[in-house]
Design a protein that fits this description.
Layout (H helix, E strand, L loop, with lengths): L40 E4 L2 E6 L2 E7 L4 H4 L7 E5 L2 E2 L5 H8 L6 E8 L2 E8 L1 E4 L7
Antiparallel strand pairs: 1-8, 2-3, 3-4, 4-5, 4-6, 6-7
């Protein structure tokens, strides 16, 4: 799986099914992957996406994740996913498209400089590292 970041989406102040607020901190921002029980892992391709005019760019590739194994690099621009242009995608939609059951695949059209690459990445559980320092 090409490592796009993936995490569960949660709203601050949302209550459990019993209706009581938990006081727990809000979940991490959306990432491209899935939402296993352990919040430090996701099921996806193992990347942290960032906005880009042509779609989205890879801001971070998670070490040892599917995207890393597939050779994706920070700075690669993802212009197509499963045959669909990403030009108007939000980061939330991007995260949802990168997540999925382990063993499923995502086909991505990548621009790297003046090269066009077509990459297929198989989703799996990935450890989510902290965001890179700015």
């Amino acid at each position: 799986m090409i490592a796009l970041v993936g995490a569960a989406l949660a709203c601050k102040g949302s209550a459990p099914s019993g209706g009581e607020a938990t006081g727990a901190p809000p979940a991490a921002p959306p990432t491209a992957g899935g939402a296993p029980a352990d919040p430090s892992t996701v099921t996806g391709i193992g990347i942290r996406p960032v906005s880009h005019p042509k779609g989205f760019a890879i801001g971070q590739v998670f070490p040892g994740g599917p995207a890393d194994d597939a050779g994706l690099l920070a700075g690669d621009v993802v212009v197509e996913v499963d045959g669909e242009s990403t030009a108007r995608w939000s980061l939330v939609r991007t995260a949802r498209q990168m997540r999925g059951p382990a063993g499923t695949k995502v086909r991505m059209g990548i621009e790297r400089g003046d090269q066009r690459l077509d990459v297929v990445v198989e989703r799996r559980a990935v450890a989510v590292p902290p965001p890179p320092a700015r």
